[in-house]
Each structure stands twice: as structure tokens, then as C-alpha cells.
Amino acid sequence: MIQSLPTLQQGSQGPYVEILQLALTRADTNPGFIDGIFGRTTLRAVILFQRRNGLAPDGIVGEKTKDALIPYITGYVPVTIQSGDSFYRLARRYNTTSETIITANPGINPLNMVPGQIINVPLNFNIVPTAISYTSLLNHYCLQGLKARYPFITLKEIGGSQLETPLTVATIGNGPRQVFYNAAHHANEWITIPILLKFIEDFAKAYTTNTPIYDTDSKELFNTATIHILSLVNPDGVDLVTGALNNTAVYQNALQIANNYPDIPFPEGWKANIEGTDLNLNYPALWETAREIKYGQGFTTPAPRDFVGTSPLSASESQAVYSYTLNNNFALTISYHTQGRVIYWKFADFMPPDARAFGETFSRISGYTLEDTPYSSAFAGYKDWFIQNYNQPGYTMEAGRGLNPLPISQFPGIYKENLGVLVYGALGKML
């Protein structure tokens, strides 16, 4: 299940404080730098926010304060229509535009608004943050906000993590070509989450404003493809790496696993799901070969990375992705990882039609190198299973460069490199 923001107060630290500071910044109360530290400046911003919203100015972010802050995270506020309201007046009241309100409420006749109706009013900022740490909660808030602002986006829970956090696929587009994009199989590669969330937002905004995305007519893209996006495959692992699980029994259990592999830094070296299975080594694509390789490297028990699991699809997360793929008809898949600015495109001796041509197109767009997967990592991944099972193009994009987890400061460059890949992959277009 999705948890809510915990109670926060001066002295709190971590990714939930970053979310708080983001909301306070959007609410124009100046919490200072978004650094995840609830200090004096953030305290003053909380008190100012509470006073502006008729709340007790105690500086503690409890339930009522959290409820008031949510619109500044999700990017919209539910409003109950009162007599005399109009989209124009609501736009003035909330510093937004009538056009965004119309988009968010396609079933409402602006000339016949009925008092008591509840509508969603988008606020005047982009939903997807690109400069803070990601958690399963932030991913959830972004998806809910995108769905509210752009109702033509569909959301579907396809399964859950080991901690029962839902895995949610967002779908955008209405065309016959089906493609699947996913991110964050590996926990310390969480910077890939906003790549896909921002793509959803940019595409939806371009479609509603009839403007291009990348070099493409957004309406052509919408009518050509149906794009399935799972922005977070491994929510529990990401929450461990970014600090959302600090001071919990779950954290302590993961620490015990990590203590068996002291050469891997904890938690920043953690790639696996919360039970120590590397999700991208858990698919039925020569899994036994992957087990032989990884056991030979010493990964014979649950580990921060490289443990293949007890059997193919032993992890609930990989099972959910596998089942969702079986229930659809994808022409192409892209899995986002970090790092190395490399594109992996083959599995074993399988060479799907057009796979190299698409890979070369993605290489030209992104500047990444098209390569064969190194042998030690060339089995039991999602891309491997997809190619083996469907003989269709499947890719692993290793974005960015450096040591995982990559700093969020790399995000603008990574997104710029990959926007065209996402567009051309959906279109089925090659250079």
C-alpha cells in the first residue's frame, strides 16, 4: 500500500522533507534550499503556510498541514462548485488558466456548472520535479497529479512489491502501435524514474496545447502509439536507497543482508528488491546461466545486487512485469538503467527484425554507444526475456555516467539525450 507523508518537524531529515520543501516552494513560502533538512528556514516556511491556510501555526507538519500541502505536490486542488462560479473565476482565484481547467474536467459543461459538483483545478506549475530524490510516494503523487490534470492518461495497478507497494502503469496515446517503457528495476538507479514521468507530462501538455514534442506532431504521436509506462519497478529498493525506510525494521533487515557483502556500500550500492533479489536477473531467459555466473562471483544468497533469486520470477515485481507483458502486444520495449551512456540491444543469438536499425537510431539521437551486453550480465534480464519470447526489439538504456546513484544534477542532460528516443521508439521511426 502507498504510505502518506509521515509527521515532520524541525530536525527531520530525508526525502520526505525534500517533498515538504518542494511543496512549500510551490506555495511561495520560501523554505530555502531543498536539501532534505528541516531547519529553521523550513520551520518558518511551515508556520507561514499554516497561518495562510488557517491552521494552528505550530511548525509541525501533522495531518491537517499535510492535507493542505498535497495540492502543491500533486499539482491540482479539488474544488466544490459554488453558485456563481465559472472556469474563468476559478482560474483567477487559483492563478491558473481556463484551458487547463477545461482539459482536467472533460465531462463538465462550463456553461452549465452545477453547484455541488467537484472539479479538479490544476495549479500553475509543472507536476514532475526534476531536482529532488525520488521515493515510491513521490512517484505515486506524480502519477495521481498527471491523471487529474490529463484525464486521458490511464493508470492501472499491475501487481505489488514485496512490501505491497502498488506497481502502477500509466498509459498515454490511442494508437495501434503498443510500446512499453520501464525504469528503476535497480534501486540505486532511481534517477531514471523522472525520465519517464517527465516524458508523460511533456507529451500530455504538448498534446493538449497542439504543440510538437521533440520534432514530432504530438497529435500524430498520440494517434500512432499507445505508450505503456511503468516508471518504478522496484519501489521498496528505491525507498531504501533514498532514505524513506530509515529507522524501520525493513531497513534493519536489509542491513543484515548487506552485512554479508561488506564490499558493497550500504545503502547506496543496493540494486536489489527489498528481499535481496536483483530484479533484472530474475526473468526466464537462460536464468540458469545467470545463476551459474553470479554464484561463481559469490552471490549465492540474498544480496544488495546480483543475486538471481530462488527461481525465475521468484520476486513479485518481476512477476508483475512479466504478466503485464504477456497480457499485451508490445512492438518494442525500453528499460531504463544507469550508467555508461550505452544501449544494449541483443540477447544470445536473437536478432529481431529492425532491432539493430532502431538501436542505431537511438544511438544517433542520444549519443550513446550501441553495444552487446557484457557476458557476465547478458542473461535473465527483462530485455533478454522480451527478445527471446517475442522476437521484437527490446533495449536497455544505460543513461548518464558516473557512480550509482547518479546525482540528480545529471537529470537535465539525461532527459535531453533520451526524449527523442522515447518519441521515435513510440512512433516506430528510424533515422
Estimated structural class? alpha/beta
Our measurement of the CA-to-CA distance between the termini, rounded to an integer number of angstroms, reads 43 Å
Number of helical stretches of at least 4 residues = 16
Instruction: Tell me the strand order in the biggest sheet.
Output: 3-4-6-5-7-10-8-9
**Approximate shape:** globular
- Percent strand: 5-15%
Low-confidence stretches: none
- Please give the number of β-strands: 10
Helical fraction: 25-40%
Main sheet properties: 8 strands, mixed
Radius of gyration: 22 Å
Helix and strand sequence: HHHHEHHEHEEEHHEHHHHEEHEHEH
Average pLDDT, rounded to a whole number, is: 97
Task: Report on this structure.
The chain is an alpha/beta fold and 431 residues long. Helix content is 39%, strand content 13%. It contains 16 helices and 10 strands. The strands form 2 sheets. The protein has an 8-stranded mixed beta sheet, with helices on both faces. Helix 7 packs parallel to helix 8 (193-209) and helix 14 runs antiparallel to helix 16. The longest helix is centred in the middle third of the chain and has 17 residues, at 193-209. It is globular and about 70 Å long. The mean pLDDT is 97.
